[in-house]
What does this fold into?
Amino acid sequence: MNEYPSILLDAAVREMSSLPGIGRKTALRLVLNLLRRTPEEVDSFAGAMTRLRHEVRYCRCCHNLSDSDLCPVCSSHSRDRHLICVVENVQDVMSVENTGQYNGLYHVLGGVISPIDGIGPGDLEIDSLVARIEPENIREVIFALPATMEGDTTNFYIYRRLTGTGVRVSQIARGVAVGNELEYTDEITLGRSIVNRTEFHT
Amino acid sequence: MNEYPSILLDAAVREMSSLPGIGRKTALRLVLNLLRRTPEEVDSFAGAMTRLRHEVRYCRCCHNLSDSDLCPVCSSHSRDRHLICVVENVQDVMSVENTGQYNGLYHVLGGVISPIDGIGPGDLEIDSLVARIEPENIREVIFALPATMEGDTTNFYIYRRLTGTGVRVSQIARGVAVGNELEYTDEITLGRSIVNRTEFHT
It folds into this structure.
């Protein structure tokens, strides 16, 4: 006897466990949960995944996920259109949006430069970022890429590409997280937070 | 702006997070993983779920999941056809099979008696179990239901129904798990393991 009494079940568990962080046991639990639903509910579940993959589009301006040609941010009239926040992927757009502290535009690179993974500048949306600066009259580009060697490389590469456009280039502050104790903060972060200390306001 | 830049994404995340133990953040991560795959791969993922739900069958004899009229266990010629292990659901069949210690048949009740959830004997595959005893010449029924009040109630109900058939009724041993320390074992389990102690063999 196989591990499972049905090859259909086996196939479903195999697909479910192909998702990141989902092992065979969890996959079986999730699949058996689907099996307890009505056929219409399972069709709705499966349909949502296939529709997303087949029908989702990417904003032609900032390359964020979108249902139409322009994403909600790029087509909004209430955003500051002189600011671009450069992020690695679509999750990062959501993270910044969730802060409620940013009202400018975005540019999703689709990754960071990583020679070890074979990802060069040409694989990322860097040309399209540079091409936005003058026509859109952008005044500031804010780097919000990960604080890794790849992120730093990408920051530096884009910075060089922007030289001469006159645009201001900044990056998000790195430092001790709000609420964190100094003794549990890693040395690099704590060191940066001292070097980049800010004026004390009351 | 919505939480997500796309209503398709929103729908997919909502469906994914309807699975047990999958929160919004995990659901987003899983959905974005699907989004990075080819359309064919996503179709394969979704198709496995819908095919399972629409095409899976239940063994007409033991009610385990099956691709055909009889499940692999019931149609096997190498099993002991005089033994039936009574379990709550299809996962339990897999758990017992994985031990490699059981070579008899199964009967999947589809739940346990639970008045609080409105589940009575008529909602479970109890009649069909009782109906198997004589024609199949069953000699022993082994209860492997959960050690809860509902499981005990169900055991007792089935036991009463089997009175007069002459079938032997047993239940799986409860006791201190192999490898567990006594001090971390709950009192009820430890107590049962003393009451139901077995002969020491060398």
Observations:
- The CA atoms of residues 70 and 76 of chain A lie 9 Å apart.
- Chain A touches chain B through 61 residues (CB under 8 Å).
- DSSP finds seven helices and six strands in chain A.
- The helical segments of chain A are 7-16, 24-35, 39-55, 90-99, 127-133, 149-162, 187-195.
